[in-house]
TrEMBL record:
<dbReference type="InterPro" id="IPR004808">
    <property type="entry name" value="AP_endonuc_1"/>
</dbReference>
<dbReference type="InterPro" id="IPR020847">
    <property type="entry name" value="AP_endonuclease_F1_BS"/>
</dbReference>
<comment type="similarity">
    <text>Belongs to the DNA repair enzymes AP/ExoA family.</text>
</comment>
<protein>
    <submittedName>
        <fullName>Exodeoxyribonuclease III</fullName>
        <ecNumber>3.1.11.2</ecNumber>
    </submittedName>
</protein>
<feature type="binding site">
    <location>
        <position position="248"/>
    </location>
    <ligand>
        <name>Mg(2+)</name>
    </ligand>
</feature>
<feature type="binding site">
    <location>
        <position position="247"/>
    </location>
    <ligand>
        <name>Mg(2+)</name>
    </ligand>
</feature>
<feature type="domain" description="Endonuclease/exonuclease/phosphatase">
    <location>
        <begin position="4"/>
        <end position="248"/>
    </location>
</feature>
<keyword id="KW-0378">Hydrolase</keyword>
<feature type="binding site">
    <location>
        <position position="7"/>
    </location>
    <ligand>
        <name>Mg(2+)</name>
    </ligand>
</feature>
<dbReference type="GO" id="GO:0006281">
    <property type="term" value="P:DNA repair"/>
</dbReference>
<feature type="active site" description="Proton acceptor">
    <location>
        <position position="248"/>
    </location>
</feature>
<feature type="site" description="Interaction with DNA substrate">
    <location>
        <position position="248"/>
    </location>
</feature>
<dbReference type="GO" id="GO:0008311">
    <property type="term" value="F:double-stranded DNA 3'-5' DNA exonuclease activity"/>
</dbReference>
<feature type="active site">
    <location>
        <position position="106"/>
    </location>
</feature>
<feature type="active site" description="Proton donor/acceptor">
    <location>
        <position position="147"/>
    </location>
</feature>
<feature type="binding site">
    <location>
        <position position="147"/>
    </location>
    <ligand>
        <name>Mg(2+)</name>
    </ligand>
</feature>
<dbReference type="GO" id="GO:0004519">
    <property type="term" value="F:endonuclease activity"/>
</dbReference>
Length: 256
């Protein structure tokens, strides 16, 4: 079973890129972030023509998350992250696919920090921790994946000294991620590649992709029931080099 996550940075504007990658990579399940489309504007027919069922939580202009499954039923379990009924941002969706619970998330960016956006990021992180604490204990496979907007360590960022005050790299953010993982989650990429330099995002500016000046902010967290089934993982970095592509590359894992 091949599961992928991809911040598409606009599902309609980047639809040709998404469809090209789906045809090439043929993942079984895909979590998408940053749809930037209201609920009624999601390209369901095009996705269906590519062989995928879909559920999605859209939002006009910003945010938005989706789960796609190739020829498999998607049973939606959760839409929106529990813990704040006033939070209207579309950042979390959870479903059962092929007896695996998959939570697709788009964690807030949080910049500028400090400030209200950073406070929202940390409060969202707290809610995620509370929800994840229940999921990690389940007696079935659970995967949390998506754009976490966190570089967990200096290993995960090009020239970390330039990012010290950024919301994605501030000590509070990294501590929140470490506390989440400490619940019993496995960082899939780091389990298989503990020492390698691996990035999942390259800015559009200053030839970041050409210089490989990237960040690792898209992650897979696996609960104990599925971590021992991990057999492969990677980043489809070349997709970042395609025309009119997202500033993220797809990230994937394969399970036994």
């Amino acid at each position: 079973m091949k599961i992928a996550t991809y911040n598409v940075n606009g599902v309609n504007g980047r639809l040709p890129v998404l469809l090209r990658w789906l045809a090439e990579a043929q993942p079984d399940v895909v979590c998408l972030q940053e749809l930037k489309a209201p609920q009624e504007k999601f390209p369901e027919e095009a996705i269906k023509d590519a062989g995928y069922n879909a559920i999605w939580h859209g939002q006009k202009s910003w945010n938005g998350v989706a789960i796609l499954a190739r020829g498999m039923e998607i049973k939606e379990l959760q839409r929106g992250l529990p813990g704040d009924d006033d939070d209207i941002q579309s950042r979390y969706i959870e479903a059962m696919v092929n007896d695996v619970i998959i939570g697709g998330l788009y964690l807030p960016n949080g910049n500028p920090a400090p400030g209200p956006k950073f406070d929202y990021k940390l409060s969202w992180f707290e809610r995620l921790q509370k929800h994840a604490a229940r999921l990690v204990e389940l007696d079935m496979p659970v995967i949390l994946t998506g754009d976490f907007n966190v570089m967990p360590t200096e290993q995960d960022v090009y020239k970390p000294e330039r990012w010290l005050d950024d919301a994605l790299f501030r000590p509070e953010t990294r501590e929140a991620f470490q506390n989440l993982v400490a619940q019993g989650w496995t960082d899939a990429i780091r389990k298989l590649y503990p020492e390698e330099t691996i990035y999942t995002f390259w800015d559009y500016f200053r030839n970041a992709y050409g210089r490989n000046a990237g960040l690792r902010i898209d992650h897979f967290l696996l609960n104990p029931k599925v971590s021992d089934k991990l057999k492969a993982a990677g980043v489809d970095k070349h997709v970042r080099g395609w025309e009119k592509t997202s500033d993220h590359a797809p990230v994937w894992i394969e399970l036994k």
